[in-house]
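Lab notebook, bench 4. Still working through the backlog of constructs that have no structural model yet. Next entry is a single chain of 463 residues. Request: give me the structure tokens for it.
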Amino acid sequence: MITHTPHRVALTSAALVAAGLIVTSSSATAQETLRGAADEQGLRIGAAVANGPLSNESQYRDVLSTEYNGVTAENSMKWESLQPSQGQFNWSDADEIVDFAQSNGQSVHGHTLVWHSQTPNWVQNLQGQDLQDAMENHINTVMGRYAGDVESWDVVNEPIGDDANLRNSFWMQELGEDYIAEAFQIARSADPNAKLYINDYNIDGINAKSDAYYDLVSDLLDQGVPIDGIGFQGHRVLGDVPSSLEDNIRRFAQLGLEVQLTEIDIRIDTPASDSELEQQRDNYEEMVNACVSVNGCVGVTTWGITDRHSWVPDQFDGQGAALPFDENYNKKPAYYGILEALGGEGDPGNGNGNGDTACEVNYSANDWGGAPGFTASVDITNTGSGTIDGWTLEFTFPGDQTITDSWSADWSQSGADVTATNASWNGTIGPNQSISIGFNGSYTDSNPAPTEFTLNGEPCTTG
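Model written out:
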């Protein structure tokens, strides 16, 4: 049963501008961004995209457009989002992501068409031919709408369980294992030009589950099933990158498949220490290097951009800090691990891609006289040769000072520890440029000045 496919109407340029979907390009050179470095390698560097921050946060859009040449819808192309009720399609969120990608020259990877999870109950309750018809109709309608707009699709997602056997899902129970081959055949007819992928977790290393995938894919190819690629999701724990990753990529590539690392994040017990963030950098670099080293590996996608919107803390209690940008969109060491693996220029020594000292801080305080209060002025100077794009300043009060009022930054205090994050209008500091921020405070006994400051996690000199 095939229904009429509604075609997507792209937004006009004026509408894209009004919606904030066209983002001006960064002044950084190509080799100083993930996107530029990946373009030089001919690789996809992608990010999973959530509609909330895409609609509401300009910094999210800026980073997404500057650092990534590909996007994957985190949730809005899953069955429960696109067709929550039978025959009733909701395109708005998926269209928003496709429109953003097109306006910023990015490829789109579709995720996902046939999956046992995040599929509505009305589908799971179908039997036999009715379920077959629903699968065919859904694939045809979705891929037909985005034909020419979505470059590749996860056609079947996670069909093998952790026991290395075909998952006993409702698809398997009603349609048998042939549903996998049938889904790919339908997908090829729906959009002959799209790349068709199978995708799963815990298969990035050589193990029983990835061996089962090797056998499954080999059998599908022998049958003439049109499968073009396999996605290794890459949700990892700190220090747990499989040593066999590169060899595993290579053996699937030798089958003639494209391979992508499709959903990378590396979670850490929070709060993460500096040494753990450095280890995370090494882990990211190791994973991306494995892809770069094999001709058949065509791309890497992180499952999100910023720790602010990561799925990890909601799913793994006490863990987080899994992505290359922190909650304030500062580049973490992980960012530079990816950049270095892609052959890009830059060093994390100062948080902005330069090897020299990044910053100087001049702190001065004027007591009010007679009252245990004071006004403090903090001048931050970029002493590096590159632009600081987004900053977080941290220091610790030596005494019992408490901030009572503040300006020109988003200030917070926990005990003696103080954090100031840029306002919307002063996040960029060019080379040899300075900004001033400040606050009012109170104290009980004395008011000694803090002596150590870090900017984006790296130490600054003091003036």
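Notes after review: The chain has a mean pLDDT of 90. The domain at 359-462 is CATH 2.60.40.290 (Immunoglobulin-like). Flag for follow-up if needed.
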